[in-house]
Amino acid sequence: METGSIEYAGLKIEGLSLAGVRTSVTLPQHSLCFDVAQGLPHALGMNHFFISHGHMDHAAGIPYIIAQKAMGSHKTPQFYMPESMVDPMREIMHQWSKIEGFEYNFQFHPAKARDTFEINQKLLVRPFQTLHRIPSLGYSLYRKVRKLKPELEGRSSSEIAGLKKEGIEPTTESEECLLSFTGDTQIEFLDLSPEVRHSKILIMETTYLDERKSIQSARDWGHTHFLEFMDRLGDIRSERIILIHSSARYSWEEARTILESKLRAEDRERVILFPGR
User: Fold this and answer.
1) End-to-end distance of the chain based on CA atoms, in angstroms?
2) Measuring CA to CA, which residue among 40, 62, 6, 48 is closest to residue 243?
3) Which residue stretches of the chain are H helix?
4) Residues with Cβ < 8 Å from 268, sequence gap 6 or more?
5) Which sequence spans correspond to the domains of the chain?
6) Residues 3, 41: Cα–Cα separation, whole Å
7) DSSP state, 268?
8) 3-class DSSP state for residue 125?
């Protein structure tokens, strides 16, 4: 088990993902974590934890992270998760508190598609709808961008300053989607949440990679098959697509070989197999 790392567009992406075993991906420069696996070391320093769904290979580490945060006198960890998870997880934490004889500090935030969670003045996370065997969400990280209004382009800095003095706002705010993380989902997330197709970086699962497991097998378990992904690749505008959650039946080297054999030459730089398993 070795934590993988990828850097692109100013983001460092670290973590591990192996189907049915563990999935946890962090953006350490923003203290964000998507899914927590069993509470692995790379995730312990994060402050905001976005949980895609309640399967144990994605969410079992929630109590452990909370306990470690308490021992280290860290900030209160913030967890965001599908609404259906909140009450059961609070009960789990209540029972752990009784077992350990310790009162924990944490915040569980119920999330639904198109909610907005402010991380700081410049960043926000917005959940999007996915389709798995149990309630599930993906999450998109957006950066707020202020730009000069088009009609004011070419104006001097003194003219812009004058407009501000007159109470006229010369800029407009927009949002840029830096990254989206799907968690486990069938391919139809692309239709349920079409805005995700335009993420600069898309981290998505492809559990089965070749004909040894059928597309229907992937669908029966609420997953995406690489062959389905290939059929929809033209719909995705992301500059980088990072594939996670491949089955343990493939070694990382075998998985990479399969991808390279099936991808067109022009897509091999854009579509990346995440190295951490």
Assistant:
1) 6
2) 6
3) 56-59, 62-71, 83-100, 157-165, 189-192, 215-220, 226-232, 252-262
4) 260
5) 4-273
6) 9
7) T
8) strand
Task: Give the other-Cβ count within 10 Å of 12's Cβ.
Answer: 13
Tokens in use for 106? 């944490």
* Nearby residues of 276 by Cβ (< 8 Å), 6 or more positions away: 2, 3, 4, 5, 14, 15, 16, 17
If one looks up domain 4-273 in CATH, what number appears?
A: 3.60.15.10
Question: Is the CB of residue 187 less than 8 Å from the CB of residue 232?
Answer: yes
> Quick one: tokens of 133?
């065997």
CB 59 within 8 A of CB 51: yes
What does the alpha-carbon distance between residue 104 and residue 72 come to, in Å, rounded to a whole number?
12
Give the helix, strand, coil percentages of the chain, each rounded to 5: 30, 30, 40
Which amino acid is it at 5?
S
Task: Give the CA angle between residues 146, 123, 130 to the nearest 5°.
Answer: 120
- Six token digits for residue 245: 């959650």
Per-residue pLDDT tens listing for the chain (277 residues): 889 999 999 999 999 999 999 999 999 999 999 999 999 999 999 999 999 999 999 999 999 999 999 988 789 999 999 999 999 999 999 999 999 999 999 999 999 999 999 999 999 999 999 999 999 999 999 999 877 777 767 777 776 677 677 777 767 788 999 999 999 999 999 999 999 999 999 999 999 999 999 999 999 999 999 999 999 999 999 999 999 999 999 999 999 999 999 999 999 999 999 999 9
The secondary element (H helix, E strand) that includes residue 14 is strand 11-18
